[in-house]
């Protein structure tokens, strides 16, 4: 009997969700891998607070999310970089407006190395030289005499684009970089590789060592203070993009995400609030 009740209950949930989707009321979020974990947490809590609302969250990268926003296959694009002018032009040509950009959280792109690596800080110049292939051995940076194993993201990633623009001054990545499909994969690789280095969102820095970035003003790690003040050189906004002005259930959800309750989720996941 319990089995019958369980399957009957499950069927009811599926029917309810399906009905919601068929009624065109499901909210879809797609894009940034950096924002995937946060978007999923927001969706879980919002659906708990608002029975009947269905939210679907998928990743793929900021570039994939922006393309989905333009072709109409997602309601909200999650992006870890701002939209390019060429992408805004496509949106305007198709929908006759430039869309809506909403900063929903802040991040400090973090440099990860293995916990056994003695290197504690790097300058942006040193980071750029590693990722362009100019510096190839940890001994050039005060570390062990060992080849640097470089890990990074795929080019559909917003973090790939942001890091190239902000840390590398738009130089090309070294051909030896191992491109991985998500930040979790980068962290996992560096955690296992004594001579590895990677980069990604601050919320993913578990089981690896965070490298401080040395500037003329001091040496900084990504914290609430350094990210909000901009002292941390790789600070950035994380965005939601819409095709037009928010309305209806999407506006209610955005208002909640930006509320103290929604921003508390940002802190719990490991990012930094926008206010």
Automatic annotation (TrEMBL):
Among the GO molecular function terms of this UniProt record, one is:
phosphate ion binding
Stretch forming the signal peptide: 1-23
Q: Which InterPro entries match?
A: PBP_domain, Phos-bd, Phosphate_ABC_transporter
Q: Which keywords belong to this entry? A: Phosphate transport, Signal, Transport
Give every PBP domain span: 26-261
Under SUPFAM superfamilies, the record lists: Periplasmic binding protein-like II
Do you know which Gene3D superfamilies this protein is assigned to? Periplasmic binding protein-like II
Q: Some GO term, biological process aspect, for this entry: which one?
A: phosphate ion transport
Q: What does this protein do?
A: Involved in the system for phosphate transport across the cytoplasmic membrane.
Similarity remark: Belongs to the PstS family.
- Name of the protein in question: Phosphate-binding protein
The organism encoding this protein is: Candidatus Edwardsbacteria bacterium GWF2_54_11
High-level lineage = Bacteria, Candidatus Edwardsiibacteriota
């Amino acid at each position: 009997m319990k089995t019958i009740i369980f399957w009957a209950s499950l069927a009811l949930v599926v029917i309810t969700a399906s009905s919601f989707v068929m009624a065109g009321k499901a909210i879809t979020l797609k894009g940034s891998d950096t924002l995937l974990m946060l978007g999923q947490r927001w969706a879980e809590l919002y659906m708990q607070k608002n029975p009947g609302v269905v939210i679907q969250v998928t990743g793929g990268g900021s570039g994939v999310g922006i393309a989905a926003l333009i072709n109409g296959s997602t309601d909200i694009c999650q992006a870890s970089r701002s939209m390019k002018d060429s992408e805004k032009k496509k949106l305007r040509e198709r929908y006759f407006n430039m869309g809506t950009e909403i900063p929903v959280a802040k991040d400090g792109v973090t440099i990860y190395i293995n916990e056994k690596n003695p290197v504690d800080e790097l300058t942006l110049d040193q980071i750029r030289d590693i990722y362009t292939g100019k510096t190839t051995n940890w001994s050039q940076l005060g570390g062990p005499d060992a080849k640097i194993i470089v890990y990074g993201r795929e080019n559909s990633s917003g973090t790939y684009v942001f890091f190239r623009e902000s840390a590398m001054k738009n130089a090309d990545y070294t051909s030896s970089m191992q491109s991985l499909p998500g930040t979790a994969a980068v962290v996992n690789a560096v955690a296992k590789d004594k001579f590895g280095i990677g980069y990604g969102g601050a919320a993913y820095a578990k089981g690896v060592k965070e490298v401080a970035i040395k500037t003329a003003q001091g040496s900084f790690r990504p914290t609430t203070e350094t990210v909000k003040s901009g002292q941390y050189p790789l600070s950035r906004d994380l965005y939601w993009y819409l095709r037009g002005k928010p309305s209806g259930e999407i506006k209610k959800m955005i208002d909640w995400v930006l509320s103290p309750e929604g921003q508390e989720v940002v802190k719990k996941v490991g990012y930094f609030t926008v206010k």
